[in-house]
Amino acid sequence: MGLWDVEQVLGLASDAASAKAGQGLARPEKWSEAGASDRAVWGLCQGSGKQPYQTAVDLSGPAYKCSCPSRKFPCKHALGLLLLHAAGEVRPGDEAEWVKTWVDQRASRADQPERKPGEVADPIAAQQRAARRTDRVSSGMAELKGWLDDQVRVGLGGFDQRAYTELSRLAARMVDAQAPGVAGAVRRAAGVVGRGHGWPGELLEELSLVHLIVSAHDRLAELPPTLADTVLSRIGWSTETARVLVEGEKVQDDWLVLGRVIEPDDRLTVRRVWLRGATTGRLGLILTFAAAGRPLDPLPARPGEYVPGTLSFYPGALPMRALLTQTDPRQPAPRPTGFTAHQALASYVESLAADPWNERWPLVLQDVRPARHGDGWALVDADGDGLELLPGWDAWKLLAVSAGDPITVAGEWNRAGLRPMTCWHNDRPVIL
To answer: Which GO MF terms are attached to this record (predicted)?
Structure first.
């Protein structure tokens, strides 16, 4: 990892609140017994309790260890320590014993041979479990289809009085039916009920997508193989890593990290890393999951850098999710080329033609300026066309970078708006 600058350290923060709290702890008087080696940086930070928090960062990851109760990774103490290190305020020293033990254990685990992915101890039992799940999913889909048909027959008038309760019950039923993807879609439908004046139209849109997945499940055998894989994935069937590594389409390139989005909740933290091939132009998505309170795997490279390697794509009509096999160290990358607002939306429409359930799409907008749009913000191009930012998204950092000049912005688009991830000041990436 080496010595990062302040902006790169702040780019590790899971949210703006963590970054701000970390900056508040980046003062020498907050720390005792701080030190740094080629492998790690560590220190003790006094909190509200009697004992100070033990904080360490393995610089090879980076990976984080802190005795505080925070569920964020990195926590504010790790960020503060790294910011102090970036400012040259941490002196070199011999690793404390608790730091050495932790870093040695991480190095030992990294050297151990991995088990073969997808290895099954009892194939017959696995087939039986798969058959039972297929029956449960089919039963759940049939129940959901009957409920949707009833709503069409009766109509949605007065549905707002019972919608949330019924949809929540159906979502729980889909979990029981081992169809977690459909359960999530039903929960999203429940979430729009009563939200703003246009919620009936949003609800109808969400229920239409649910109905489409149910209908596709009924005709699964008639669908092209790639579309069938997409339907199974949207229902919640997972694809074994071994199958992806062996059978998945493989594309070798220098992959530009467009940006990353981290979404934590009480049970699971999800990180999406969006990539674009420098030569092929292919888009890729690296999904990483961690249980609440557990650290995510280190990023293969920082946003705005190239990571040379091979992507093995998961099957589907719109292959996006992939596994990365990194072949060389990360490299600096120039500012990427991008779309106008019109071209960006056209690319999203093309993605929906391949996968109607596609929820998110990476976009790179070129020569855009942040501008007020009603109560929110939009990115407006030279033609006066624009894309709205997500409601409530703070555009002040974009304004500070652009200073009124056009900039390049990479973001994640969904039906609610654009979530900026990275922007470029000349060729210098700024993580948002």
So the answer is: zinc ion binding
